[in-house]
Write a structure and sequence with these properties.
Layout (H helix, E strand, L loop, with lengths): L1 H4 L4 E5 L10 H7 L3 H4 L10 H5 L2 H12 L1 E9 L5 E12 L5 E10 L1 H23 L4 E5 L10 H7 L3 H4 L10 H5 L2 H12 L1 E9 L5 E12 L5 E10 L1 H54 L3 H27 L8 E3 L1 H7 L1 H6 L5 E6 L7 E3 L1 H17 L5 E12 L10 E10 L6 H6 L17 H11 L3 E7 L3 E9 L8 H4 L5 E5 L3 H13 L3 E5 L2 H10 L5 E5 L7 H11 L4 E6 L17 E4 L4 H10 L3
Parallel strand pairs: 10-12, 16-17, 16-18, 18-19, 19-20
Antiparallel strand pairs: 1-4, 2-3, 3-4, 5-8, 6-7, 7-8, 9-11, 12-13, 13-15, 14-15
Length: about 625
């Protein structure tokens, strides 16, 4: 009676041949047949036509008879022709003697369960297809120990590994060596396990060894019992976004710095202008007092006051330069020639313990620049580099030409720029000092060692020339100051291009005052002047400037003498004319130096007329 009353299961008996011999209420509810309609009928009528054609009902009885039990799921038919998904169990029934007397069959309608499973399977399949189809994100699973268990298309695109390359390997292979050394992958999994989630940004490594900046999320995956079964890991390549954010921040910082210096420039320019007016009154008043001085003591005081006023005037000129209110006379110039002709002065601005190099690019475009202000700025940079290398080191003055992107340096627009840089191997500067280095009166030097206006003048000069100043410094490793000037087009029509080409002369003397006066004398005669204060430096200038036509050198110099230099110059440049100057009547006393044959000799002291005669003699 219990079996007959069960309605959730179809429970009935089959004969050894498979005919229905009993029928309960559950069977009638599931399949729609009454007991009178089905008793004596073969149970195969409950199967689909496909299953009957395939012999499924008879194989089920054969398996149950052979093994004692048959169990399966599949489609079954109701009386009205509709289908339902059934869970079926068929047990063989035997008598005491072991003879088969029939089968007990239990059927359950699990259509809803099947539909739910199918829906879940379809949902999982759709999710799998979605994950596999995503290419902007690397989405994959990790085992509890961090081994990769699956791999989507986005992971292949971003990291470069194929599915078979990474399955079963540890995910730490995607981290940099530095991060692996510090145990970052393990800490990430531990945090995800403890807190449920880990999120961070950092460098990751592709299969080809290149790096990309990644945003990473790791979620712990737990089963219904709360046991950790693995991790879901999502990685996105945000390198472009990071670079864009950095570029925006740099642009903002450059704009802020520019606005700050502009404000300081207006203030200092106004102060310098007013102070210049005051100094004008002071210097004129001192000039009048000097004429009325009654004794030497008064004159000494007036002279001391006048020197102080002149120093104040020099300071105001530097302030005006920073404020870009200093009148300039820009002309198109080959900056390599300007530096070469000024090289001797730059070397004097250094010291013997420092190795001074000049590395000029073979060809650079002309720039518009005020030569005098440029030379002052360059000397300021060399002196600063010297002060930053008190224990010796290296200073290098170099030129190059670069193509910049928009705002790549400060707020300069995109274009070609000529770069003049002064690099030292000195003490360097921390970032906070770099940020304030060009401000007027800001200095890290001891009191009385500097006004803090040197870099201000450099900044004002390059800004007024349409360029910008870039400072790169590492504490303890040195500093590079780079001046960027807009490069002129090759076909630029300008006054300098129309000027006649001046003949080049190299003047060599170990006495700075003599070198400076002689150089200025040759400039007044229309020469393009290059200078050096020793024979070795002169050889370097000749090597870099092979079109120099005339050499004027002192004879007696430390190291290489003028006679030795003259012979060396003629070996390098057979066309060069040589004039040697000396205070000795016969400077060629040392036989090792060679003779004066082929040279013009100019005895010291000489006048302009004497010099002109020698120039005529050599055809200059």
């Amino acid at each position: 009676m219990f079996v007959s009353a069960v309605t959730d299961y179809a429970i009935y008996m089959l004969s050894p041949e498979g005919n229905v011999v009993s029928w309960n209420a559950g069977a009638q509810r599931f399949k729609g047949y009454t007991a009178d309609e089905i008793i004596g009928q073969h149970f195969s009528r409950f199967y689909t036509e496909e299953d009957r054609a395939a012999g499924v009902p008879w194989r089920a009885l054969e398996i149950a008879q052979t093994t004692g039990k048959f169990e399966a799921e599949g489609w079954r038919m109701r009386k009205d022709g509709t289908r339902f998904w059934a869970s079926v169990v068929i047990d063989a029934i035997r008598d005491a003697g072991g003879e088969l007397v029939g089968f007990a069959k239990i059927t359950r309608d699990i259509t809803e369960k099947k539909a739910a499973q199918e829906a879940l399977r379809e949902s999982e399949e759709r999710f799998r297809m979605l994950v596999q189809g995503v290419t902007d994100y690397a989405i994959y699973m990790l085992s509890p120990t961090g081994l990769v268990t699956n791999w989507n298309a986005g992971a292949r695109r971003i990291k470069g590994y194929e599915h078979d390359d990474v399955i079963g390997t540890h995910f730490s292979r995607f981290y940099t060596e530095e991060d692996r050394a510090t145990g970052l992958p393990g800490r990430a999994l531990q945090q995800a396990s403890d807190q449920g989630r880990f999120e961070a940004e950092g460098w990751r490594v592709r299969k080809d060894g290149t790096r990309f900046w990644a945003h990473v999320v790791i979620d712990a995956i737990r089963n219904d019992l709360g046991h950790l079964v693995g991790f879901a890991k999502i990685t996105r390549d945000i390198t472009e976004r990071r670079l864009a954010a950095q570029a925006l921040e740099q642009a903002r910082e450059a704009l802020f710095q520019s606005q700050k210096l502009e404000a300081i420039g207006k203030l200092t320019g106004g102060v310098a202008h007013d102070f210049n007016n005051l100094l004008n009154v002071v210097t004129n008043g001192l000039s009048m007092l000097r004429d009325r001085a009654r004794d030497g003591a008064e004159l000494r005081v007036i002279n001391a006051m006048d020197k102080a006023a002149q120093r104040g005037a020099a300071l105001t000129q530097q302030l005006l330069s920073f404020a870009r209110r200093q009148p300039i006379k820009p002309q198109a110039r080959d900056i390599n020639r300007v530096i070469t002709s000024f090289e001797a002065v730059l070397r004097r601005g250094s010291r013997n313990t420092i190795h001074f190099d000049v590395a000029l690019a073979p060809r650079v475009s002309q720039i518009l620049v005020d030569t005098a202000q440029f030379e002052t700025a360059l000397l300021n940079l060399v002196v600063n580099a010297r002060d930053a290398t008190p224990d010796g080191g290296r200073i290098t003055v170099a030129t190059s030409e670069v193509q910049l992107g928009d705002r790549q340096v400060g707020i300069l627009p995109a274009g070609r720029y000529v770069v003049v840089s002064v690099q030292d191997t000195g003490s360097g500067m921390p970032p906070d000092v770099v940020n304030r280095a060009v401000e007027p009166f800001f200095t890290t030097k001891e009191i009385g060692k500097g006004t803090g206006l040197g870099l201000s003048q450099v900044y004002g000069m390059v800004q007024q020339s349409g360029g910008d100043l870039e400072i790169r410094s590492t504490l303890g490793e040195g500093t590079t100051m780079s001046l960027y000037f807009p490069a002129l087009a090759a076909d630029c029509e300008c006054d300098a291009a129309q000027e006649p080409v001046a003949e080049k002369v190299l003047i060599v003397d170990d006495q700075p005052d003599v070198l400076e006066v002689t150089s200025e004398l040759f400039r007044t005669l229309g020469f393009e002047v290059f200078s050096a204060n020793c024979g070795e430096d002169a050889v370097e200038v000749l090597r870099r400037t092979p079109d120099i036509r005339l050499l004027l050198s002192d004879v007696v110099m430390p190291g290489m003498s003028g006679i030795q230099l003259g012979h060396k110059a003629q070996e390098m440049l057979p066309h060069i004319k040589v004039i040697l100057a000396s205070g000795y009547a016969n400077p060629a006393l040392d036989r090792d130096e060679g003779s004066l044959d082929g040279f013009q000799f100019l005895p010291k002291p000489y006048r302009v007329g004497d010099l002109v005669k020698k120039l005529r003699a050599v055809g200059s």
